[in-house]
Write a structure and sequence with these properties.
By secondary structure, the protein is an alpha/beta fold. It has a domain of about 260 residues: Spore Coat Polysaccharide Biosynthesis Protein SpsA, Chain A. It is built from 15 helices and ten strands. The strands form two sheets. Strands 5-4-3-6-9-8-10-7 form an eight-stranded mixed beta sheet, sandwiched between helices. It has a two-stranded antiparallel sheet with strand order 1-2. Helix 4 links the parallel strand 4 and strand 5.
Length: about 475
């Protein structure tokens, strides 16, 4: 298992000044290179002035089809640049902004009662390790219960769970679910009826919590406005192959930078369905878990936010997961996320805009959060549009403006997400991981195509969602509690 990364709050002042100078120099270089390109019509070399031939006339009166395509292309470019700016705002917040960790020092609370739910379907390879780690957490034993929701497993999951329950009566309670709607969300609905704790935390069966994790996740609920909390996910099998290393970089950017920046800026952190939990009172007030969605986590996030509750993110609450080790498993996982998220976005984008419980900045960030997976097919559509416009002979940009736009976007826009990932690796104290960053282009293209297909299937009428369990690769998990 990897040791905790102990993320730093921000860069030291010396590094922060260097980062700011580097960003300013990059923008200046873009403008300089664009200006140089625009001056080629009257370039001179040494004492001899070379007069360039006038550029050919370009017809500005496009046909109606070309005009529509150009406006569509500009719309795509505007959306891409909006998300590019979002990436840079988040990154600079982590590098230079004030870091908000309001619950980091809470260690002497009157700790609330906590029920940990562990949904499990055919998890014999990993469930023993997860239960062993949960039993070792530092939390008052009389205020913590662990319920394993064994959802119609057909492997050896049940006997392993029963063995742990027999060895730790009163601490581990098995719930063997044999009927009802399959899937994690439906299993959580049934499990909630069996627990009565103030706080309900959820851990997927392959997750390995650290000793202090439950306290770190329970601490934010000392704020009566907090209805949901999310911790940080760190892959434990990073060294398995190239894919797991690339996913580790993605997780670093998503949590160390993206989620923490939202916390810094007073925006909308997202509950991710595991390594987090809800205030029971808050969840029941907004209708409980939704069993009819693939993304019960995003659904709960939106209903809690529009219901007047806050979502907190705790960057130092690290938990270790097993990342997919094969590309097919990764594609199935991200397609499930994309379909579920798109379903939630379709239902909650307008309620978020209209919510009187959210500030203007929270509503704006919430709308952008709803659209993250939709940007994949939009980006592909933009690439197709650009090719069509080019071969139609239409020219939506000219001269200095064209050079400046292309140079600036190629230098800054294309790599906004990668800048975020690199910043996360630097804040983790492991900057050498950045050497793998160019290979993340492979993961980017695979994710782009996979999520585009999933979003289109979700949007088209008649599409039905189906739960696909993520394949497990760990083979050395305990089959019985240690004696």
């Amino acid at each position: 298992m990897h040791m905790p990364r102990h993320p730093s709050s921000a860069l030291p002042p010396r590094w922060a000044r260097r980062a700011a100078r580097l960003l300013a120099a990059g923008i200046a270089a873009c403008a300089f290179s664009a200006a140089s390109a625009a001056q080629t019509a009257a370039a001179w070399v040494g004492p001899w002035r070379v007069e360039a031939a006038p550029p050919p006339e370009v017809a500005m009166d496009h046909g109606p089809v070309a005009t529509v395509l150009i406006y569509l292309l500009w719309g795509v470019i505007s959306l891409v640049l909006l998300y590019t700016a979002r990436h840079y705002v988040f990154t600079l917040s982590r590098l230079l902004g004030r870091q908000r960790h309001p619950f980091a020092l809470l260690d002497t609370l009157d700790w609330p009662t906590v029920a940990v739910l562990v949904p499990a379907h055919n998890e014999e390879a990993v469930i023993g390790g997860s239960l062993g780690a949960l039993l070792a957490v530092d939390y008052p034993a009389d205020r913590l219960t662990i319920t394993v929701v064994n959802d119609r497993s057909t492997d050896g999951t049940r006997p392993i769970v029963d063995a742990y329950a027999a060895a730790y009566p009163g601490r581990i309670t098995p719930f063997h679910r044999g009927e009802g709607t399959p899937g994690k969300a439906a299993a959580l609905v049934d499990a909630m009826a069996r627990v009565d704790a103030e706080i309900v935390l959820v851990f997927d069966a392959d997750y390995l919590p650290g000793r202090d994790l439950v306290k770190r996740l329970a601490a934010p609920f000392a704020d009566p406005e907090v209805g949901c909390v999310m911790g940080r996910v760190v892959p434990v099998n990073t060294d398995a192959n190239l894919l797991t290393r690339l996913l580790d970089l993605e997780r670093t950017g998503g949590y160390q930078v993206d989620q923490q920046a939202r916390m810094n800026l007073g925006l909308v952190p997202q509950y991710g369905g595991t390594v987090g939990g809800v205030r029971r009172e808050a969840l029941e007030a907004v209708g409980g878990w939704n069993p009819d969605t693939l993304s019960e986590d995003t659904d709960a996030t939106c209903r809690l936010l529009t219901g007047g509750w806050k979502v907190a993110y705790v960057n130092r609450a690290e938990c270790y997961e097993e990342s997919p080790e094969t590309w097919p498993a990764r594609i199935r996982q991200i397609q499930r996320w994309a379909r579920g998220h798109t379903d939630v976005a379709r239902r909650f984008t307008l309620p978020i805009v209209k919510s009187r419980h959210l500030s203007l900045r929270e509503r704006f960030d919430g709308v952008l959060l709803m659209g993250v997976y939709a940007m994949s097919p939009i980006l592909l559509f933009g690439w197709v549009l650009a090719v069509i416009v080019f071969y139609l002979g239409a020219h939506p940009l000219h001269g200095f403006l064209a050079a400046l736009a292309v140079a600036s976007y190629n230098t800054l826009g294309n790599f906004a997400a990668f800048f975020e990932i690199a910043t996360g690796a630097r804040l983790d104290g492991t900057p050498r991981r950045v050497r793998l960053l160019p290979l993340n282009l492979l993961g980017f293209v695979v994710s782009l195509c996979a999520t585009s297909a999933a979003v289109v299937r979700e949007v088209l009428p008649g599409g039905r969602f189906e739960w696909h369990k993520t394949e497990r690769f760990r083979q050395d998990g305990p089959n019985a509690p240690a004696t």
